[in-house]
Amino acid sequence: VQLVESGGGLVQPGGSLRLSCAASGFTFSSYAMSWYRQAPGKERELVAAIPSGGGSRNYADSVKGRFTISRDNAKSTVYLQMNSLKAEDTAMYYCMAKRYDYLYWGQGTQVTVSS
């Protein structure tokens, strides 16, 4: 099982990034997918989640209206489009796959928002 995040980097405030998480080794379409983030000295927090069928999404209040989660089951990939980035969005971003008691994490991709 692998979850490989990509797309992080350094961006100026107000900029955009799109994170990708490529999955392999399990039936991606059967798993709910989420993006979490963890800033230094803070707990890991849920950013966005999307069910296996790609229906109703959930977002943290802090990112509503700025971030969009989506998935492509044919490519076994989940995305996080991040717009209007703020300094407080700086964190390591992780994707997570969940189905019943099965839970998988990626290694993370760093997002730094700074001028």
Description of the structure:
With 115 residues, the protein is mostly beta strands. Helix content is 0%, strand content 53%. The protein has no helices and 11 strands. Strand 4 and strand 5 (45-50) form a beta hairpin. The mean pLDDT is 97.
Question: Briefly, what is this?
Answer:
With 115 residues, the chain is an all-beta fold. The chain has no helices and 11 strands.
Mean pLDDT: 97
Biggest sheet layout: 7 strands, mixed
Percent helix, as a range, is: under 10%
| Number of H- or I-type helical stretches | 0
What are the secondary-structure elements, in order, as H or E? Answer: EEEEEEEEEEE
- Low-confidence stretches are none
User: What structural class do the secondary elements suggest?
Assistant: mainly beta
Please tell me what the overall shape is: globular
| Cα-to-Cα separation, first versus last residue | 37 Å
Rg to the nearest angstrom? 13 Å
Per DSSP, what share of the residues sits in E-state strands of 2 or more residues? over 45%
Number of strands: 11
Oligomer: single chain
